[in-house]
Amino acid sequence: MTIPPKPFKSPNPDEFWLDERIYIREIMNAPEEPDISLARFRVPAGSTTQLHALTISEWYIMESGTGIVEVDGHKIEMSAGDNIKINPGQSQRVINMGAEELVFQSICTPRWTHECYKNLEGDDT
């Protein structure tokens, strides 16, 4: 006999502002499912997110807007429909040079936690 699946919810389902200079809505990020997380981000027009690295793998799925994803110093132009994988330890940030917000989703494996995040800009945020 198999155990039926149980629904679960992200503890932080509402959108909020991060000091990383980005809005986030954690669609799926819960201890009940430690292998993966999914979030939706909004980068305001003219903004650049904080340079950082993660100890986990991350994929960006671009929804709308245009911008640059910088990974280990390589600047990659991205727009709706583009996807990119960022490996553990690679520096990363998103630059929205457009006139509208840049929206993308992020899948992390294993799930994102604050402990996997390293700020590379030298302050404590």
The backbone outline, from C-alpha atoms, is globular
The amount of helix comes to under 10%
Which CATH-level-2 architecture? Sandwich
Elements, N to C (H/E) = EEEEEEEEEEE
Determine the mean pLDDT. Answer: 95
CA-CA gap between termini: 48 Å
Alpha carbon gyration radius: 15 Å
Contiguous uncertain segments of 5+ residues: none
Tally of separate domains: 1
Specify the CATH homologous superfamily.
Jelly Rolls
Describe the structure.
The protein has one domain: Jelly Rolls (Sandwich), CATH 2.60.120. The protein contains no helices and 11 strands. The termini are far apart. With 125 residues, it is mainly β. A hairpin with a 2-residue loop joins strand 6 and strand 7 (74-79). The protein has a 6-stranded antiparallel sheet with strand order 1-2-3-10-5-8, with no helix packed on it. It has strands spanning 16-18, 22-28, 37-43, 52-54, 57-64, 66-71, 74-79, 83-86, 92-95, 102-109, 117-119.
Could you outline the blueprint of secondary structure elements for this entry?
Layout: E1 16-18, E2 22-28, E3 37-43, E4 52-54, E5 57-64, E6 66-71, E7 74-79, E8 83-86, E9 92-95, E10 102-109, E11 117-119
Antiparallel strand pairs: 1-2, 2-3, 3-10, 4-11, 5-8, 5-10, 6-7, 6-9
Q: What are its keywords?
A:
single chain; 125 residues; mainly beta; Jelly Rolls; three-stranded antiparallel beta sheet; 11 strands; 0% helix; 47% strand
Structure, briefly:
It contains no helices and 11 strands.
